[in-house]
Design brief:
Chain lengths: 344, 320
């Protein structure tokens, strides 16, 4: 299948800056990645790491927020940065769609479920309401809404959290988009419902061949869903690798911290290892490594390199890049010593 | 149910107002040359010799079933809804109110339509142009409009439009059925002066409501669906920000229906507000009580209507 290897979305040197009263906020700094059709890319990071903003930017949803977007975003060959907003609007909801963290606040509280989906169909297709309703009904049935006829006439507050997220998913996929951006789709849901929603997303992805950008801070979700992972910190990608390598051979201290923060029942040491300190302010970023102030390994690097020079995103292995001044041997030693990743 | 309760309380309070005035109501029924005998006769005719509670019940009965004043040969009927008899004007209060109410209704509704259309559309426009010069200009203008008292705008317009420039004849109220052109010529200035004041407020309210809802998640969803910005604003954002606007609108309209005192005075409109002020200056107690009751009833009814509209706008408010 050559079609599955085709690159659908190509992000090159994406920058997003917001001008605020306190100064210029560099929310996304030189982000690049490719996403192939039908594949899932997870973007992982803490709040404020730029993972949501970068995705909103490529959907053209940061306009009007005093944002300055630069770089290149090719969606099926079409450059989106700096493109006519009207042409990007026509892609939104049709060929690229988005679902959000909190389905209750993301659905309009005053409109019926059915009408909200019908509207999504009719923006992009010149069909009458009856025909649109037929499509909506089929989609809602597909995403597992019971009693669809009745539910279509209900309002978001009358549905449970899981049902609402199913509705959101149905709404985003109703025009059969090639790209779905799922921004923390399960964070606001109960654990049992989370699993159902993830299953549903995987099924629908297989069925429709949708490529997914999954934004999350939950590494469990990443392990379950992703083909590739971008770890973001302070607006930049600090590590980018196939999902197995992220878990088995993570290559830089921030990723190690993330993995060490996962609670494990069989853990040999009973306490969690949180990453010390707080995420950086995105105003006037430090000139050195963004993670340096919180890094517990920077003393291993000589000459204060970590504080003074921004590390480049360099290959660790053919499909794996990371941004760190530690040498390959130092990283292997630390992983062995700290029991991070796969033990050989 | 609540409405009936509120109206009962309201009627008691307004009725007590009648008796709280530091004069004798019977003394007020005739002029300075009144003999004590006439006063006593009038006291009995009006039932003012009765205990307070029977006076109140009689008054309420008058509103619903009509009442008969006096006894023997000197009786006269006051049909329901009887709000009392004004000795000052030698007229039944109900008739006086029925004459002035339409004037106030025309004034209030006309101004209401003007300010709602003007205020909301300007507010949406300002929200769309947030931070740009259009927005700043509108906000500055509304601040001026909002700060100017209606008597200032009203008199200014009278001086220029009528006296200096002779664009319109001097306002003299006639009913719309009598002479439509003269009616409109009379009403246009009061409509505008009232509307300027309220439109300024509704522009600011609409703008801030729109900006509030624009940051909601469901607006982001609407954009993510690929809806044109116009639809996002007019359908999704406005609908969600409508509730406080409807509340204010209902209460403001009701307040005006109770009498736009200053505007009616400036433009010589024989409406409820002027009736009330006239009654106050003349110590015409039954009229004061009646106009107060009517104005307060409007407010209560408006509250109920606003509640019903809430449910129509916001499905979360509807009873399950």
């Amino acid at each position: 299948m050559s079609e599955t290897d085709e690159v659908l979305l190509s992000v090159r040197n994406l920058y997003v800056e917001f001008s605020t009263d306190d100064g210029l906020v560099s929310a996304v700094n030189d982000l690049s990645y490719d996403l192939k059709r039908g594949k899932t890319l997870a973007i992982v990071g803490e709040s404020g790491s730029g993972k949501s903003v970068s995705s909103m930017a490529l959907m053209g949803l940061v306009a009007g927020m005093n944002a300055k977007v630069s770089g290149e975003v090719y969606f099926d060959g079409q450059q989106l940065v700096g493109a006519d907003p009207e042409s990007v609007r026509k892609l939104r909801g049709d060929r690229m769609a988005m679902i959000f963290q909190d389905p209750l606040s993301s659905l309009h509280p005053f409109f019926r479920i059915g009408d909200q989906l019908v509207e999504a169909v009719q923006v992009h297709h010149d069909i009458d309401k009856k025909q649109a309703q037929v499509r909506v009904k089929a989609m809602l049935e597909r995403v597992g809404i019971p009693d669809v006829d009745q539910r279509m006439n209900e309002y978001p507050h009358q549905l449970s959290g899981g049902m609402r997220q199913r509705v959101m998913i149905g709404m985003s996929l109703i025009n059969n988009p090639e790209l779905l951006i799922a921004d923390e789709p399960t964070t606001a849901l109960d654990v049992t419902v989370q699993a159902q929603i993830l299953e549903l997303l995987k099924d629908l992805q297989k069925e429709f061949g949708t490529a997914i950008i999954l934004i999350t801070h939950d590494l469990g979700v990443v392990a379950d869903m992703a083909d590739e992972v971008v770890v973001m910190y302070g607006g930049s990608a600090v590590e980018h690798a196939p999902v197995r390598e992220i878990f088995y051979e993570p290559a830089m201290p921030y990723t190690w911290g993330l993995i060490a923060s996962i609670p494990q029942i069989s853990a040999k040491h009973a306490h969690l290892d949180p990453i010390p300190g707080n995420p950086p302010s995105l105003i006037n970023l430090p000139s050195g490594c963004v993670f340096a102030p919180r890094c517990t390994f920077k003393h291993l690097v000589s000459d204060g390199l970590c504080e003074n020079e921004r590390p480049q995103l360099l290959p660790v292995s053919p499909e794996h890049t990371s941004r760190c001044h530690l040498t390959q041997n130092q990283r292997t030693d630390i992983r062995r010593e700290r029991l991070i990743g796969r033990q050989k | 149910m609540l409405m009936v309760f509120m109206l009962t309380i309201l009627s008691i309070v307004t009725f007590l107002l009648f008796n709280a005035v530091p004069t004798d109501p019977a003394r007020l029924t005739c002029g300075k040359t009144c003999s004590p005998a006439t006063i006593e006769a009038n006291r009995i005719r009006l039932g003012l010799d009765q205990p307070l509670i029977s006076q109140y019940l009689e008054w309420i009965k008058g509103i619903f079933a009509g009442r008969t004043y006096g006894s023997g040969t000197a009786t006269f009927n006051c049909d329901a809804p009887c709000l009392g008899y004004s000795f000052r004007n030698g007229e039944q209060v109900t008739d006086m109110i029925l004459t002035s109410l339409p004037v106030t209704i025309y004034l209030a509704i006309g101004a209401f339509v003007l300010w709602m259309v003007g205020g909301i559309s300007t507010g949406i426009y300002a929200a769309r142009k947030k931070g740009k010069w259009q927005d700043r200009a509108i906000m500055g203008a509304t601040l001026v409009g909002y700060s100017l008292p209606v008597f200032f705008i009203g008199i200014l317009m009278l001086i220029f439009v009528v006296v200096r420039w002779n664009i319109l004849p001097y306002p003299s109220y006639v009913g719309p059925n009598v002479d439509t052109l003269q009616f409109l010529q009379t009403m246009i200035l009061p409509w505008i002066s009232l509307a300027i004041l309220y439109a300024a407020y509704y522009t600011r309210l609409t703008r801030s409501q729109m900006l509030d809802t624009m940051s909601e998640d469901y607006i982001r969803t609407a954009r993510a669906k690929g809806l044109p910005e116009k639809t996002v604003l007019r359908k999704h954002a406005l609908r969600a920000g409508l509730t406080p606007i409807v509340t204010s609108a209902g209460l403001d309209l009701a307040g005006l229906l109770g009498g736009a005192v200053i505007t009616e005075y400036i433009f010589g409109l024989p409406g409820l507000g002027r009736l009330a002020i006239g009654a106050v200056t003349e110590y015409d107690l039954p009229t004061i009580t009646a106009t107060t009751l009517v104005a307060a009833t409007f407010i209560i009814v408006a509250n109920i209507v606003v509640d019903l509209l809430y449910a129509a706008i916001d499905p979360r408010v509807r009873l399950q």
